[in-house]
Specification:
One of its GO terms (cellular component) is cytosol. This protein is an alpha/beta fold. It contains 14 helices and 12 strands. The structure holds 5-amino-5-deoxy-1-O-phosphono-D-mannitol (M6R).
């Protein structure tokens, strides 16, 4: 059942070219300029006309929501708030009739996310669910939604569900932006094409497995890790840190790279591995200076960069080169090496990768 892999997590990481394709199948055809999400049809105008969008989720799904915030705001120009479902539900949140709430959940059973949408629904919000498990409670409680179609995810650490969530949310954002006229035709078509090419590029990122295993071996005994990214790669930093802590029990923190100066920089010394997600995008120059700041304090830098980068390899201790794509969908590629890094470190430390201590696959009690 593990398809020849040692763990479900590794199988699910390697399934991603396929699960991302499955998620786009029948929905996206860049050549024909075709993008359809059946579950959105009835509600698209409500989203197009929404004053704001709220996203509620927990854990990795919250990270996917944070990627979606950046994508939605850039392309649709609708303000987006991403909320931890557990905080949102107990804060007497401000919800108006007609507000759009997007709930993201792999299992569709997370207690806080379910309670958050029930609350929003009772105040007149429209709920759009992005779930993986068909017929799950959150899917049923939503007015509309799109399944991620990633297939069953068994490993407690979420991997293929994350990339499928980001894929669905990108398609929703592009549809809304196109309908709204907030994106140019040229940019819309370019993004459809780039999205369609993601599975092939994820395959290339997976081919770095051996090299990542080598890096994992060097850092497996570290006591702390810092993950830094900017812009679209900031949520990827959070996700990389979560993956490492939950399965390897190494303390890790994800931060927006520029926030480093406001505290975490004090932690940096020759013992501190810092993973930079530093692909070639609009914040490239800025992150290069953040790498220099870490090197000046003797931190060990592992950098995920775009293929062909010539500058960062001169500064970093280790580099991981991933294929280029549009910066808005880079998280679909840049997260792959981080999943593999945490996987190998956890295996080398003898941890139970598929069922880490204290964790359950779905958190059905608050
Ligand atoms: O099923 P859900 O997507 O609602 O689950 C949310 C979180 O419990 C989940 O993402 C958790 O953080 C994972 N263990 C992360 O790998």
């Amino acid at each position: 059942e593990k398809g020849g892999y040692e763990h479900f997590m590794l199988k699910e990481i390697f399934e991603q070219p396929r699960s991302i394709s499955d998620c786009m199948r029948g929905r996206l055809d860049a050549n024909r300029g075709h993008l359809v999400l059946g579950g959105l049809r009835e509600y698209i105008n409500k989203i197009v006309n929404a004053d704001r969008i709220l996203i509620v989720a927990c854990g990795t799904s919250w990270h996917a929501g944070t990627v979606a915030e950046y994508i939605f705001e850039e392309f649709t120009r609708i303000p987006v708030e991403v909320e931890y479902a557990s905080e949102f539900r107990y804060r007497n949140p401000i919800i108006k009739e007609g507000d759009v709430v997007i709930a993201i959940s792999q299992s569709g059973e997370t207690a806080d996310t379910l309670a958050a949408i029930e609350l929003a629904k009772s105040k007149g919000a429209i709920i759009f669910g992005v779930c993986n498990v068909v017929g799950s409670s959150i899917a049923r409680a939503s007015h509309a939604g799109s399944y991620t179609h990633a297939g069953p995810e068994i490993g407690v650490a979420s991997t293929k569900a994350f990339t499928a969530q980001v894929t669905v949310l990108t398609m929703v954002a592009l549809l809304v932006a196109h309908r709204k006229g907030s994106i140019t035709e040229a940019r819309y078509h370019e993004l459809l094409t780039d999205l369609e090419q993601i599975p092939v590029k994820v395959e290339k990122a997976l081919a770095l497995n051996k090299q990542i295993e080598y890096i994992a071996d060097i850092f497996k005994d570290a006591r702390n890790f810092l993950y830094l990214g900017r812009g679209y790669n900031f949520p990827v930093a959070l996700e990389g840190a979560l993956k490492l802590k939950e399965i390897s029990y190494i303390h890790a923190e994800g931060y927006p790279a520029a926030e480093m100066k406001h505290g975490p920089i004090a932690l940096i010394d020759e013992e501190m591995p810092v993973v930079f997600i530093a692909t070639h995008d609009s914040s490239y120059e800025k992150i290069v200076s953040n790498i220099q700041e870490v090197k000046a304090r003797k931190g060990k830098v592992i950098a995920v960069v775009t293929e062909g980068d010539t500058l960062i390899p001169k500064m970093a201790d280790f580099i991981i080169e991933v294929p280029a794509t549009n910066e808005a969908i880079m998280p679909l590629i840049s997260v792959i090496p981080l999943q593999l890094l945490s996987y190998h470190i956890a295996v080398m430390r003898g941890c139970n990768v598929d069922q880490p201590r204290n964790l359950a696959k779905s958190v059905t009690v608050e």
